[in-house]
Amino acid sequence: MAAKTSKTGASARHVSPIQSIRVKRERSDDEEETRRVAQRTNEVEEDSDEAAAGAKAEMDELVLKGLLSNNEDALFETLEKIDTLLYDRDDEKSQKEAQSDFFHLGGHTLVAKVMNTHLKCLEIQRLGVYVLADACSDNACVKKFITRAGGMQAILAAMRRHKNDASLIRYAIIALYYLTSLEDNAVLFVTKTDGVSLVLDCMKTFSDNDGIVSEACDLLESLCKYEQLRNKLDKAKVGTSLMVAYDNNEDNEEIRMLTKGAITLLFE
Q1: How open is the CA angle 185-253-236, to the nearest 5 degrees?
Q2: In angstroms, rounded to a whole number, what is the distance separating the alpha carbons of residues 153 and 250?
Q3: Which of helix, strand or coil describes residue 53?
């Protein structure tokens, strides 16, 4: 049987010497590019490993030495650097590694102690709240130990002392939201602290601050999801605060959705 020919009449299976050289060159170019990509990948991984090791060493230094200082300026600088390590990370893996390093070094305990010791210092309280919020992860054990170490109480104390600082209040509520996503912490928050009343007061004080109202409604909705807590909440006060937030935010669909969801759960 005759070999199939191309439109030019040449055999489809025939490869000229020039074509053979071209194919070999293309293969060689492909292999070289593959080698270069692998080399760049290895370099990136090595750089990443070096960066991770450097970040861990810095976290060790900050937690084990920096947080033991009694100087407020030094503590401010230390907390700022810790917050950067916990928050400004390039990827989720790096952030979780930083959270893990901070936790295993006992950083949450030391930050709570620093906050309790320097309660009057707004800058330290604000950064302490930032750090505890950023230190929370999806790990239930971490949330439990932050609370046991006095983290929740330190956050509430900061809210009482600096109740007019919008940034502190907002991130305090965010931190409380993370902590109370663990049911045991939520029960403690509702039954053993004045946390709910503090949050309701903040909603009233900052009624025109969408960020604070939104975070507060998110926290209240989260608490209302626990069936055992609904009857322990002051439904009249919580419900009124949610209704006010709903009425005052006609143009904010997110807040209205959160308040509606919380009210529905609260009165189930």
Answers
A1: 50
A2: 34
A3: helix
Q: What letter does residue 66 receive in the DSSP assignment?
A: G
What are the backbone angles phi and psi of residue 11, rounded to the nearest 5°? -65, 135
Query: What length is written for the chain?
Result: 268
Q: Which residue has the tokens 């940034």?
A: 167
| Alpha helices per DSSP H over the chain | 17-64, 72-87, 92-104, 107-117, 122-135, 140-148, 151-161, 166-179, 183-192, 195-205, 210-224, 227-230, 235-248, 253-266
Tokens of 142: 């971490």
Nearest to 129 by CA among 155, 163, 166, 100: 155
Each residue's pLDDT, cut to its tens digit, for the chain (268 residues) gives 444 344 444 444 455 666 665 655 666 666 666 666 665 555 444 455 665 677 789 999 999 999 999 999 999 999 999 999 998 766 778 888 888 899 999 999 999 999 999 999 999 999 999 999 999 877 788 899 999 999 999 999 999 999 999 999 999 999 999 999 999 999 999 999 999 999 999 999 999 999 999 999 999 999 999 999 999 999 999 999 999 999 999 999 999 999 999 999 999 8
Dist. CA 2–CA 11, nearest whole Å: 9
Measured over the CA atoms of residue 9, residue 11, residue 17 and residue 22, the dihedral's sign is positive
Distance CA 91, CA 180 (A): 25
Rounded Cα distance, 187 and 63, in Å: 30
Closest to 58 in 3D by CA, of 26, 80, 82, 76: 82
What crossing angle do the helices spanning 166-179 and 183-192 adopt, rounded to 10°? 130
Distance of CA 213 to the CA centre of its chain: 19
